[in-house]
Design goal:
Layout lengths: L7 H7 L5 H16 L5 E3 L2 E4 L4 H18 L7 E4 L9 H4 L3 H16 L3 E4 L17 E2 L2 H11 L8 H10 L1 E3 L13 E5 L7 H13 L4 E4 L6 H14 L6 E2 L17 E4 L1 H10 L9 E4 L6 H11 L7 E6 L1 H10 L1 H7 L3 E4 L15 E4 L2 H11 L2 E4 L2 H4 L4
Parallel strand pairs: 2-3, 2-5, 3-4, 7-8, 7-10, 8-9, 11-12, 11-14, 12-13, 14-15
Antiparallel strand pairs: 1-6
Helix pairs in contact: 2-7, 3-5, 6-9, 8-9, 8-10, 9-14, 11-13
Length: about 400
Amino acid sequence: MINMFLTKKEQEMCDGEAGETIRKSMDILVALGDIYGASKLVDITSAQVSGVSYKTIGDAGLEYLEDLARDGSGKATINASLNPPGTDLDNWEKLGFPEYFAIKQNQIVDAYADLGISKTCTCTPYLVGNVPRFRDHVSWSESSAVAYVNSVIGARTNREGGPAALAAAIVGKTPLYGFHLEENRKANLIVDVTTELSGADFGALGYIIGKVVGSGVPYFKLNNVPNNNDLKTLGAALASSGSVALYHVEDVTPEADIANKHDVEDIMFISDKEIQETRQNLTTTDKQADLICLGCPHASLEEIKQVANIVKGKTIKNKLWICTSVSVKATADRMGFTEIIESAGGNIVCDTCMVVAPIEEMGFEVIGVNSAKAANYVPSMCGLDVVYNDVENLIQFE
């Protein structure tokens, strides 16, 4: 029994009159709406779909996608992009990715493309053209992207699973519940940070608060103004140690003034002591990293420029990957940053990231990261040790 209101056209889609792929997609969306008490479906302007890496979805996921695509009755109706796969799709052989994995991975991405999802594979779609407007309803699924689009852009999405985001992309709608409703976007914890933050400090802060607030909505009072890269880092850490989908930063993020912070009784103070202790605790070994992996979430052009300035005219001792999108790398190529980094011995790696890549099969033992999200996930998902620090402290030179 469907409890959510459906229009005549939506009911026809549920009944299979628009094809089997659309019927299956509606089944997912209606089930979600009924579970979470949604009153109706709402039109969306954008989707971001996870469940892309062969490492996470395997042969069963590939078969599901190919079956949907083979039916041919439904494709994405709105701007929709993919999360990172498990390899650099074009340069996997040069970088040493396993061949069996790369073949399967390209099949997965091709199946998504057959369903109308853009092959711009990135966890930072807002850097490459998938940019909703303030208060747009969207359906995004990658945790750091969800935190960014809700918090920094002020669009509205729940933290969707990959199949739900794919279904929403195909139908162009999502159930109206959770963070789509303004009353659920208010803060329930004030975080007063008593020290200035820079670089990896923002990841440490997010890691601390995510563990405390869970799926809540923190409101930050900071001593210095973060840039967009800092906010990206903060949100990724909040979403990985907890399940934060929305946060506010006083005088910075667009909905901070309507977060009703004066009604919040829970206040937490964070000093430099907590930040430094967390930075140390995120490191799991005393060994030196044999691979420095940056770009979790995917690196922006400004972050690539920073690395280029650090390594210019030098020779890197450990391996260096900077993970980003094809689009951002193309600009880095034109700006000369790629040539500088490659001349120093590093690589700009497209599409993938260290969390969803099979790096445990590629001979690495210790990964150096400036991302608290990566530091949290690499030991559990890859079985490798991590060193957590700022970029300039991670890269070693001959």
